[in-house]
Design goal:
alpha/beta, D-Maltodextrin-Binding Protein, domain 2, 3-stranded antiparallel beta sheet, 42% helix
Length: 257
């Protein structure tokens, strides 16, 4: 028998024999340690931020704690800047990242995602007494407060709106409130957070795009057992009302879809 083929066959057998030892290794280590380490920013309200007492709080933080509880472990958060947050998975600084990480094809090439746990849609926002703008098509000839380089700005421009440049949601909503802009197309989650904080603000959503952007819990690639366990935990917190309670607390409604 050819010596090279003999070595090759032996190597294949060795790999196959070793595979079961590594299957589920991360999940086993997490359960053995009693802790799942979660990377997050800690500077991105209302998802992950520090409150007045400097405690780490937020929607993503509570989701992380709830998922950890279903896994039978404790959540330990490791804070870091967004630019290096996902890369921290490669360095094994933590087991997962929960930080409004959008599920994209590019990211899925290198990492694995849980099922989506939150959805964001583009919504059209106007003053409460504005009855002229009822849909995106009504923006033609109207002014829309937008970050000029954002996808929302492109949507407004494509609808025929005259853009009023802003630095982001907060400035955009203020221009609508003060009448310096007729509308803004913006993120549904940002609007819900704003209305949760300022329920009496006279602004409303009149239309939304049907397609949503979804975020998931991101982990290192090649660990289906951990992904499956996280997905089951997410399903469980939705089934027992935990997710709904967290969602209502931060956004006033279910934001899973």
């Amino acid at each position: 028998m050819n010596l090279f083929k003999t070595f090759a066959a032996a190597a294949i057998v060795q790999v196959i024999a070793m595979a079961p030892a590594y299957a589920g290794e991360n999940l086993d280590q997490i359960k053995s340690a009693g802790v799942i380490k979660i990377g997050t920013e800690g500077t991105y309200a209302p998802f992950t931020f520090h409150d007045a007492s400097n405690e780490l709080v937020g929607f993503d933080v509570e989701i992380g704690k709830a998922v950890a509880e279903k896994l039978g472990v404790t959540a330990e958060f490791v804070e870091g800047k967004w630019d290096g947050l996902i890369a921290g998975l490669d360095a094994s600084r933590y087991d997962a990242v929960i930080n409004q990480v959008g599920i994209t094809e590019a990211r899925k090439q290198k990492y694995d995602f849980s099922d989506p746990y939150i959805a964001s849609k583009a919504v059209l926002i106007v003053r409460e007494n504005n009855d002229e703008i009822k849909g995106f098509e009504d923006l033609k000839g109207k002014s829309s407060a937008q970050s000029l380089t954002s996808n929302f700005g492109k949507l407004a421009q494509d609808a025929g709106a005259e853009l009023v440049g802003t630095d982001g949601f907060d400035q955009s909503i203020q221009l609508v409130l003060t009448g310096r802009a007729d509308a803004t197309i913006n993120d549904s989650l940002s609007f819900l957070d704003f209305k949760k904080q300022k329920a009496d603000a006279p602004v409303k959503i009149v239309a939304e795009k049907p397609d949503a952007d979804y975020s998931g819990i991101i982990v290192r690639k090649g660990d289906p057992e951990l992904v499956a366990a996280i997905n089951k935990a997410l399903a469980d917190i939705k089934a027992d009302g935990t997710y709904q309670a967290i969602s209502e607390k931060y956004f006033g409604q279910d934001v899973s879809k």
